[in-house]
């Protein structure tokens, strides 16, 4: 690959306050220095837009170091090694990593090897690259680990998934079905609910936006109660599900997307039911499970090639369009994972 002189990146202008105003990031072109010994040039193939982007854009300490104003925005990317001065990386290798929202990045090869986040991947020729950030990527692994390891899901159990038409939800729904569970989804709007029933073959789907009393609607649709709740949303949705949990039920706290980017956090009122219903509620971070991921990835790749999983992503073309797509994370404007193909001219 001939090395470009400049790279383009989205840089943090200000933190998000109460929702996105669309000007949190600005587009910059910066000179790309020459590679030094031990360094690797990454050419970004695609950027995954995730709910965690809203956390990283907030002025709030999280599980990764706080980004500063003027820093390049952070994201999950798949990149090809464009050039390497490090023995562990060769031109053409693919990595799944967390780096900046940039078309090219120069990184220290030792840092990549030691960050416990970066993985080398060998994309299968019959699988689109975007599957490796969704179906076969962090959202797919989170759904698998969350349901099977944290939720201890067994065949025949009744599972409810919130944010079921989002990236993680779609995968949780498919994995729960593949595991032989009775699967219900919560999603906003008739179109998403239809997709969950018709395409993913869920037992039923509840349009939480159309429900006048969500707690009651859930009890009508799942009268025997929920045994495993895979919660992507938190807040009011969690409050409505808690009274519908069975005794000894499990709640997998995948995330609280309804609360991200909001200064005021919703106070869940039904938490005392955790005691009276003897519930187990457990959070997890997929980053803690990356050592086990090769096995999960191999299983899921086979399921995808066998047609047991579908790869459903919402594709955006061009890194320059990434910021404009970000609000979809808050409005639910995507079915499946939001993926931005970068389209590097030197690839
Ligand atoms: N624990 C982990 O390691 C891990 C890893 C990856 C992701 N996650 C978590 O998984 C969750 C989903 O992430 P994602 O990447 O799948 O995001 P996503 O594709 O944007 O899906 C999230 C869905 O949540 C729904 N939603 C958003 N705001 C809502 C609200 N106020 N009330 C009800 N539903 C709302 C939206 O659909 P509707 O149109 O249906 O509202 C949206 O499609 C996040 O909480 C994220 O932190 C956790």
Structure, explained:
The protein is of the alpha/beta class and 347 residues long. It has 2 domains: 6-134 and 312-341, Alpha-Beta Complex (Quinone Oxidoreductase, Chain A, domain 1), CATH 3.90.180; 138-287, Rossmann fold. Helices cover 24% and strands 27% of the residues. The chain has helices at 52-56, 109-114, 138-150, 167-178, 190-198, 214-221, 235-241, 273-276, 293-305, 322-325, 328-331; strands spanning 6-12, 25-31, 39-49, 74-84, 94-100, 104-108, 119-121, 158-161, 182-187, 204-207, 226-231, 245-253, 280-283, 313-317, 337-341. Strands 3, 4, 5, 6, 7, 14 and 15 form a 7-stranded mixed β-sheet that branches. NADP nicotinamide-adenine-dinucleotide phosphate is lined by residues 50-52, 138-139, 142, 163, 165-169, 187-188, 192, 232-233, 237, 254-258, 284-286, 329, 332, 334, 337.
């Amino acid at each position: 690959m001939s090395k470009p002189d400049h790279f383009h990146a989205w840089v943090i202008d200000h933190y998000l306050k109460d929702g996105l105003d669309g000007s949190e990031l600005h587009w910059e072109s910066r000179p790309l220095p020459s590679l030094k010994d031990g360094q690797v040039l990454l050419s970004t193939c695609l950027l995954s837009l995730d709910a965690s982007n809203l956390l990283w854009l907030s002025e709030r300490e999280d599980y990764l170091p706080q980004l500063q104003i003027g820093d390049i925005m952070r994201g999950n990317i798949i990149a090809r090694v464009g050039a390497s001065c490090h023995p562990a990386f060769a031109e053409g290798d693919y990595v799944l990593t967390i780096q900046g929202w940039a078309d090219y990045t120069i990184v220290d090869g030792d840092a990549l090897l030691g960050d416990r986040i970066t993985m080398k991947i060998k994309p299968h020729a019959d699988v689109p690259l975007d599957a490796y950030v969704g179906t076969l990527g962090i959202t797919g692994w989170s759904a698998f680990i969350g349901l099977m390891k944290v939720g201890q899901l067994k065949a025949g159990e009744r599972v409810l998934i919130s944010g079921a038409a989002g990236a993680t939800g779609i995968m949780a729904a498919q994995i729960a079905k593949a595991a032989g569970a009775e699967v219900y989804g919560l999603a906003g709007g008739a179109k998403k609910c239809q997709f969950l029933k018709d395409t993913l073959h869920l037992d039923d789907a509840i349009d939480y936006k159309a429900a006048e009393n969500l707690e009651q609607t859930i009890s009508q649709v799942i009268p025997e109660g929920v045994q495993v709740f895979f919660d992507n949303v938190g807040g009011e949705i969690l409050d409505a599900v808690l009274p519908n949990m069975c005794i000894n039920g499990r709640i997998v706290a995948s995330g609280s997307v309804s609360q991200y980017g909001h200064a005021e956090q919703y106070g869940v009122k039904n938490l005392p039911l955790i005691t009276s219903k003897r519930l187990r509620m457990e959070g997890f971070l997929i980053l803690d499970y990356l050592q086990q991921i090769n096995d999960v990835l191999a299983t899921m790749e086979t399921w995808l090639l066998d047609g047991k999983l579908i790869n459903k992503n919402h594709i955006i073309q061009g890194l320059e369009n990434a910021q404009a797509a970000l609000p979809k994370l808050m409005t639910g404007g995507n079915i499946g994972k939001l993926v931005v193909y970068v389209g590097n001219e030197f690839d």
